Prior knowledge:
Strands 1-9-8-5-4-2-3-14 form an eight-stranded mixed sheet, with helices on both faces. A four-stranded antiparallel sheet has the order 10-12-15-13. A three-stranded antiparallel sheet has the order 7-6-11, with no helix packed on it. The protein has helices at 2-25, 44-56, 63-75, 87-97, 122-130, 152-155, 175-184, 236-246, 294-325, 360-369, 400-408, 420-437; strands spanning 80-84, 113-117, 134-138, 160-166, 188-192, 200-201, 204-205, 212-216, 229-233, 332-333, 341-342, 347-352, 375-376, 394-395, 409-413. Helices cover 37% and strands 14% of the residues. The mean pLDDT is 97. Among the domains are: 52-255 and 284-295, 3-Layer(aba) Sandwich (Aspartate Aminotransferase, domain 2); 256-283, no CATH class. It is flat. Strand 4, helix 7 and strand 5 (188-192) form a beta-alpha-beta unit. It contains twelve helices and 15 strands. The protein has 438 residues and is of the alpha/beta class.
Amino acid sequence: MKKTKKLRKEILEKVKELHREEQKEESFELGKDTIPFAARVFDEKEKVSLVDSSLDFWLTTGRYAEEFEAEFADFMDQRYCSLVNSGSSANLVALSALTSDKLEDRKLKAGDEVITVAAGFPTTVNPIVQNNLVPVFVDVELGTYNIKVSELEKALSDKTKAIMLAHTLGNPFNLEAVTEFAEEHDLYLIEDCCDAVGTTYDGEMVGTFGDFATVSFYPAHHMTMGEGGAVLTNNPVYKKLAVSFRDWGRDCYCEPGANNTCGRRFSMQFGDLPYGYDHKYVYSHVGYNLKVTDMQAAVGVEQLKKLPDFIEARKENFEKLYKGIKEFEEYLILPEAEENSDPSWFAFPLSVKENDEFTKNELVNYLEKHKVMTRQLFAGNLTRQPAYQNVEYRVVGDLANTDYIMNNTFFIGVYPGLDDQKIEYIIQQFADFFYERI
């Protein structure tokens, strides 16, 4: 045992040494190398934790996952956190959980409607379609890029049963109006927080207002474990349902490697199965296998320690960009934080105002040519995407702002890896573009 501990320690020390040497070899040249909109920010601690976990060779969820779930739930002010393999899977699990027969009259049924927006990422909406529900698309506001709450009443029908919305690029939607509407009409609310970890509204963490919150740990997001996501809730029933859909649909909620957590493994009756059928092999839902590995969770444990600093860096970088680009607001719609909120920004969105001097594509192409990475505001208008041409949905109004976003909106990064030199360079590229044309 002493020898294996010694060898393990030597391996982990070599990991640290390797990382330090790799850092010495890294270089970046402004104007030559691309400034990404997002990237991993890490040090030797994540690598050591990853290798340490791999040496355990447990592979599936284990001690690191358990540690992360407890600590992340605490960070998000939630009782329960269940890790999954992506933010998209988190959305799928959260919405699927609400279709469970265990919810009886409150379960979502095929044909029920879910209010959402078309100006966003597809996997906020896809679970609605995948569960044979009907998305009802409402337009958004320019500047905040969140749902027009004035349109909520128009979206309501006798089939409306839920609301599923993302906090766009870290900017929370009007939670006061949306939660009030959901409570008035007895609707479920799922908050997609994949881009908004650390955002607060009225002093409260986003994700705590709805029935479920979902999070992504993809490298572009606020923290990473490579792939990965989480489903959060304060409701013990919802938590159990989420875990069931994540873990093959089984009724048993034992963690991997555990047995008889309920104390009644061989003494229950389910459906037409024989009495005492092993509870570990009883399936109450048509579920999936969406678990994360312990190696990913090991990275997440170290990233979580850095998360408060990551969030502050994003806010600071956002403010620096805002001050630098504000000079050109005659031609650009600058991002606008939702009233009574403190966004933990995922990115810096910009919409080109209608003008005769230049187009959005010309500005984007100029930035890309000068090594400033840009991205569209995700899918633009989902109803115009090929995948949705044969999907059943309902639209409220004409989605004019959603179309405007599709044609005129893009974003640049605010991630913690941007230093002052890179931010100043980005601002200078905007200045050069406008001074050449205006």
